[in-house]
Amino acid sequence: MKSKLKIWISSALFATSLLGCHESFLEEKVYDALTPQNFYQTEADMQAGVIAVYNAMHAFDCWGRQVWLAAEYPGESSWPNNSGEAWRTELDQYTWTPSSTGFKQMWSGLYKMVNRANTVLQYADQVTYANPANKDQILAETRFLRGLAYLTLVRFFDHVPYVTVENSTDLYPSNENTDEQVWTLIIDDFKFASSVLPATHTGRNIGKATAGAAQTMLTKAYLTRAGKPWNKQEYWALAAAEADKIIKNAAYGYGLHANYNDVFTLANEHGKEYIFSLELESGIGLGKDFPTFTGIRSGNQLRLDGWSSLCAEEKFFNSMDPKDKRRNRTFVISYPDIRGNGTIYEYPKTITLPHFNKLINQDDNKATGTGDYATNLPITRYSDLLLMHSEAENEAKGPSAAAVSGINMVRERAGLAPLVPGSMSKETLRNAIIQERAWELCLEGHAYFDLKRQNAIVSRITNFKPAEKHYAFPVPQDELDVNKNLRQHPAYQ
C-alpha cells in the first residue's frame, strides 16, 4: 500500500519550484509572483517545504542514482561491466579526476537538499501552527535531512562549505576552515532530531524520519568522525554508546528478520529491520531503476529487461561461503525464464557474469518502465547498526563479548559460526567486521565509506592501484572554476 509520504513526495513539484530560488550558488534565477518569501504562510505550506527536502533525495544526482553508485563502485563487491558513463569505470578503477562528471552532480544535488532545508528553517518562525509540537516536528525532520545531506558531503569530499540560514545568500561560500562548523552542525542536527521525532510512525507518516533514524545517523556520524581522515579516537566510544542505546530501546521495535530474504520484500519495507530508506513506489513518478541496473541484460529475467550495469565481482561472489544463507538472496544463482517456457538459467552455466539479486523482487511487478520499480533502497537498517556497534566497541576497547555481540547476531542469521573474542586481536576483528559489512550490506551504499573509514582502500582493493588521494573525492572542477573561494582537496593539489 502506498504511504502518504510517497504520495506527498511525488506531488512535491510545486514546492520544489519555489525552493529552487535557493538551490544553487550561481544559477540564474527566474522569479515569478510567488516566491519563498510569500509562499510560506500556513502550516500546510511548511509541510510542503519539508516534503520538497525529501524529494531532493530522489533526484538523479542524489540517492536516486549518483550517490548510490559513488558509494558502491569503489568497493570490493561490484563493478560497472563497462556500461554507461565513463565516471562509473573511473570510480571502479580509481582513475577519477576533479572533472569526472558525477562529482559535480553529487555536489550540486546534496547542496540542493541542504538549501531546501535551510529555506524551510528560515521561514519556520513566521507561520502559525495548530500546536507547538507540529512546528517541532517540521524543524526536526528538516534538520535530520540537512544533517544527512551534510554527512554525505563530508564522507565523500571531506572539506565542504558551511551553508546555513545565516549565510545562505553568500554566492561564493568557502570550504576553508569550515570542518568544525560543519561537524558541529551535523551532530547538532541529528541530536535535535532524535530528541523531537517519534519512535515510530503510523498511517500517513510511515516512511518519515524517526528518532531511531536520527540516532542511527548520529552513530554513523560519530563513527565517521572517529575514522580516517578525522581520526578523532574519542568518537569510537561515543558511537558505541549511541548504538547501544538504540539497540536497547524497545520503543523502536528494531530487530532482525529470521530470514535474510524477507528484509528486501515489498511487504517488509517498513518491517522491524527498517530504520530509514529511500521511499519508492510505482505508478506515481516515484519509482527507480535499481532492479534494472542490477538485472541481467537480455537475460529474460525481468519483464522490462535489465542492464547488467552493476554486476558482482567474481572474487566477491567466491568469497561468500556457499552455506551462507544470504547467498541466494545476494546473488543470482538461478532463475526461471520470465516467458514461462520452462528454461532455467544458472550461474555459471548459462549466466556468464555474477549478478546481484538483492534488489530484485518478483512481486515488484507494477513498474510502467525500467525506472519505475517500487523496491525501497535502504539507507540504514538494523544489521548496519549492529555492525556499527561491533566496530565501535572493538576500536574503543578491543575484542570483547560486547564487541562481537552485534556481528554475531548478523552471522547467526546467515548460518555462520560465531566469532570468539578471546581468539582475536583488534586487527583481526576489525578485518572480520569489514568483511561482514561487505557480505551483509553490499549494494546498499556503504562500501566506499567503510573502506575509507577503516583506512582499508589500498590494502583491500588489489585489482587496481588506488593511492592515498583516493580516500577522498576531489572538489568538482566546475565548482572551482566558478567559485574562487573554494579550495581543492589537499590530496589533489
From TrEMBL:
Keywords: Cell outer membrane, Membrane, Signal. This is Starch-binding associating with outer membrane. The keyword Cytoplasm does not apply. Residues 25-223 form the SusD-like N-terminal domain. Residues 350-492 form the RagB/SusD domain. The keyword Membrane applies. GO terms for cellular component: cell outer membrane. Belongs to the SusD family. It is found in: Cell outer membrane.
